[in-house]
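pipeline stage [seq->struct] | target=Cytochrome c-552/4 domain-containing protein | organism=Thiohalobacter thiocyanaticus | residues=396
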Amino acid sequence: MVSSHGQGRSAEGVDAFLERHWSKPLPPQGAPPDHFSPREASLSPQSCAECHAEQHRDWSGSLHSRTMDKGILWQARVLPSDQVKRCLDCHAPLAEQKALLAQSLGWPEAPQDPPPEYVSPDLHRQGLVCAACHVRAHQRFGPPPGPGRPAGDTPGLPHDGFVASAAFADSRFCASCHQFPEDGPALNGKLLENTLNEWRASRHAREGRQCQTCHMPDRRHEWKGIHDPGMVRQALSAGIRTEAEAAGRVRVRAEIRNTGAGHYFPTYLVPRVRLQLVAEGGAGGERHVLDEAIVSRETDIWLSEEYSDTRLAPDAAQKLEGLLPEIGSTEWRLYVQVDVAPKEHYERMFAGVLNDSEVKLDRETRTILAAALAEARNTRYVLRLGERALTHGIAN
């Protein structure tokens, strides 16, 4: 194998690299080279942190480190193993992770032998670990090195250096988990996960902004999305204007536009966002909701029926409007309130299962599910956009 300075694998096209790199299910790593130290051979993120502390710190706070949280663990305990394995292709894709989970759940097909030394006993609980993207057959892969960083074939690097590929800075790298195939699960003729295609149809793709541009700025391993208020502010822009009408009434109009996300807002069907056009004023500072709208793709909890799809495509807008109340106030604070429930679908699903007397769960599974529901509800947050003052009929 030729490393990053050569013309071997590192020079192959992105599509060819990704087809090989994300061939599912991922094969086991196999035995590490004899000269590897235990740390070099380890698949544990904690071992990676010895040299990549910043990346590990970012990953530890990201959703990628929590892809095997309670919300999927309770399902792994009740669903058929074949179905769980398909989920693990993204949630814990390493073959070694799947083997550990199979052993912990007592699946008949679980390996009988204990895991090799380079596999930590809790690897299956750590989610999308570093090795899932960066290690194949104990060879390390990554993006071309940045300024001042050593090339992959620099002598003396740990684990024999690394193979560089431009694929790590390409949106297609993320498609393995964030884009269903054309024959994948769909409702109303629309794939349940269609993020790459949404991006391809947007101006963001034409202008050269990749997934990594927004979700991995400066190569940070945080992958922030709708769970983060800052990312929502980056995605949405809001403008509010007022117009005088007859009899001294004032009409307020707001436009909330998806200017920052290179895909639908939200791209997946789990979140639910409520937009409210709010006026605060009057002698007591009363709060008045002039108009509101839901932005989401709403389905039943078992994904068998789609009720509505009001998501915002890139550069699309949701408009709200209403009249200020006739309460004699001449000073108002106008804004758009954004109520974000990042896991609203899971909230409904988890609560539905817990409350369904026909669903039989053992005590431990029920405890895990109840904790998953609480965690899902705790992800909700509220923010304001487009705030402005209105004094004596004049917007400031």
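stage status: PASS
auto-comment: The chain has two domains: 9-178, 229-395. Residues 9-178 form one domain.
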